[in-house]
């Protein structure tokens, strides 16, 4: 990529990027949300055309090729957004990019062997006849990966591929990457998880403010230098956990069971407490949160909030009225209204504050939204900016912040920092501290071990739908926690 520039209106996303990718390497690209990483990869994929500059592949100028032409060159991009067609089968989704055609007609059967070989390569068995929309987010991630590599792939771009994956599945992905590298595939790996970058990459490029500011061999790039290059500043406290007086019991869950997902879950959360549930993907954390919130109704069990039992078939609306908020795992489809602006998203939960005589007031809405944008440090600080145009980290700030226009008793958070850069993570952790300091409680589901250890008052380990262990962060270690998550017993 040579002097690549791209603007969206007044926003200059890329200011002249120069980046060389070597054949058969794993090249990591890091940077804060909005630094230009995904925009550049969308240009490589043919989704955007540069305003200026060129992109060359195997000594051929491919600037401005269409997505289909780019794929035929052997360049495949797995984007952050899961491009699944829910109504189609797993098999059809995998072959969707280049479906098998014979004599001008679709011939699905001819693609069976190729799909089965791909699934064997990735080591992730899936029911090919199953409807893709019914699968978990992590399973859908592997469908997208299979789609990218089912045809001959020379360059594979992975944009935040582990944001929805467990530790076990992340290790499986790394094994796939190493296999593909041995076969001659070049990997471009974008991630906010620094430990992953050092584990899998050969070289690292740092993006900041629309520029590639530094490229270094991974072994020669010190972690402090990497973080400073990403942010252009030092983070003094990454987990700015506030000292909060823990109060009496706020939430109690007893005997909670749902289908074949969770079995007899017992837990409690006290006022001002941050409790984190950890475990492999599919171990039941999301189902626990969704039962408490009323998205799904438990088969058995009781949920008590502030001493009052909730109806087993209570709805999300009733949960909100009881003082329960939810930040869901999939912010794009469940946490925000992408085509609405920041202002509309921030005020969507509590419209009473912005109404006069039951009529919405533009001035009140603008005032409330502006206050929250300042408090959340949303960039750009324009309340009329469309949500879909924001970086992932700034979207997540709004998704969390809309629940802070009013005080709720209990905040349920599902992978709240997934796909969020290191700077935005620190800001979200600060917001969580503010919530706890205000007397509210947080029940968090997280696949980030360091996050769980750094932000929690207590950690609950789930394994195969049951509570396996309960821990105090200061009394355990990362290695012990990982052992428990895998269902093993650590040595005391």
Report on this model:
With 492 residues, the chain is α/β, with parallel strands linked by helices. The protein folds into 2 domains: 230 residues, P-loop containing nucleotide triphosphate hydrolases (Rossmann fold, 3-Layer(aba) Sandwich); 237 residues, P-loop containing nucleotide triphosphate hydrolases (Rossmann fold, 3-Layer(aba) Sandwich), CATH 3.40.50. The chain is 32% helix and 24% strand. It has 17 helices and 25 strands. The protein has a 6-stranded mixed beta sheet with strand order 7-10-11-3-12-13, sandwiched between helices. A hairpin with a 2-residue loop joins strand 24 and strand 25. Helix 14 runs parallel beside helix 15. It is globular and about 70 Å long. The relative contact order is 0.12.
Instruction: Compute the separation of the termini in Å.
Output: 52 Å
**CATH superfamily membership of the largest domain:** P-loop containing nucleotide triphosphate hydrolases
CATH architecture of the largest domain: 3-Layer(aba) Sandwich
The low-pLDDT segments are: none
Task: Compute the average pLDDT.
Answer: 90
Beta-strand content: 15-25%
Query: What is the percent of helical residues?
Result: 25-40%
Query: Globular, elongated, flat, extended or rod-shaped: what is the shape?
Result: globular
Strand order of the largest sheet: 7-10-11-3-12-13
Rounded to an integer, what's the Rg over CA atoms?
A: 23 Å
Structural class: alpha/beta
How is the CATH topology of the largest domain named? Answer: Rossmann fold
The CATH class assignment of the largest domain is Alpha Beta
Reported for the largest beta sheet, the result is:
6 strands, mixed
Q: How many structural domains does the protein architecture include?
A: 2
Total number of beta strands: 25
Specify the number of helices.
17
């Amino acid at each position: 990529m040579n002097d690549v520039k791209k603007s969206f209106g007044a926003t200059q996303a890329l200011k002249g990027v120069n980046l060389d990718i070597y054949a058969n390497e794993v090249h990591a690209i890091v940077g804060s949300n909005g630094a230009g990483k995904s925009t550049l990869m969308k240009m490589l994929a043919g989704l955007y055309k540069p305003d200026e500059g060129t992109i060359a592949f195997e000594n051929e100028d491919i600037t401005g090729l269409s997505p289909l032409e780019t794929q035929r060159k052997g360049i495949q991009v797995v984007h952050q957004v899961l491009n699944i067609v829910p109504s189609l089968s797993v098999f059809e989704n995998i072959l969707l990019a280049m479906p098998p055609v014979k004599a001008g007609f679709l011939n699905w059967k001819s693609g069976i062997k190729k799909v089965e070989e791909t699934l064997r390569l990735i080591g992730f068995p899936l029911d090919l006849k199953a409807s893709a929309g019914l699968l978990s987010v992590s399973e859908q991630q592997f469908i997208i990966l299979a789609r990218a590599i089912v045809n001959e792939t020379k360059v594979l771009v992975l944009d935040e591929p582990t944001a929805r994956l467990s530790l076990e599945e992340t290790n499986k992905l790394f094994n796939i990457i190493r296999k593909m590298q041995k076969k001659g595939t070049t990997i471009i790996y974008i991630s906010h998880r620094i430990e992953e970058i050092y584990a899998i990459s050969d070289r690292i490029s740092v993006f900041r403010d629309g520029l590639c500011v530094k490229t270094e061999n991974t072994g020669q790039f010190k972690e402090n230098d990497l973080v400073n290059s990403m942010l252009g500043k030092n983070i003094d406290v990454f987990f700015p956990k506030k000292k909060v007086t823990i109060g009496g019991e706020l939430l109690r869950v007893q005997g909670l069971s749902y289908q074949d997902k969770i079995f007899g879950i017992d837990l409690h959360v006290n006022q001002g407490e941050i409790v984190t549930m950890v475990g492999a993907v599919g171990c039941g954390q999301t189902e626990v949160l969704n039962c408490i919130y009323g998205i799904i109704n438990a088969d058995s069990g009781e949920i008590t909030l502030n001493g009052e039992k909730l109806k087993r078939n209570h709805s999300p609306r009733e949960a909100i009225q009881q003082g329960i908020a939810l930040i869901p795992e999939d912010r794009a489809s469940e946490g925000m209204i992408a085509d609405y602006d920041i202002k509309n998203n921030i005020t969507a939960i509590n419209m009473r504050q912005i109404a006069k005589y039951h009529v919405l007031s533009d001035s009140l809405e603008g005032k409330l939204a502006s206050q929250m944008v300042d408090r959340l440090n949303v960039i750009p600080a324009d309340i009329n900016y469309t949500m879909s145009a924001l970086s992932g980290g700034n979207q997540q700030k709004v998704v969390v912040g809309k629940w802070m226009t009013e005080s709720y008793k209990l905040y349920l958070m599902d992978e709240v920092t997934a796909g969020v850069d290191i700077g935005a993570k620190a800001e979200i952790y600060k917001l969580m501290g503010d919530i706890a300091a205000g007397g509210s409680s947080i029940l968090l589901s997280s696949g980030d071990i360091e996050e769980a250890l750094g932000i929690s008052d207590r950690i609950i380990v789930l394994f195969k739908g049951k509570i396996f262990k309960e821990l105090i962060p200061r009394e355990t270690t990362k290695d012990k926690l990982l052992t428990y998550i895998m269902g093993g017993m650590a040595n005391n």
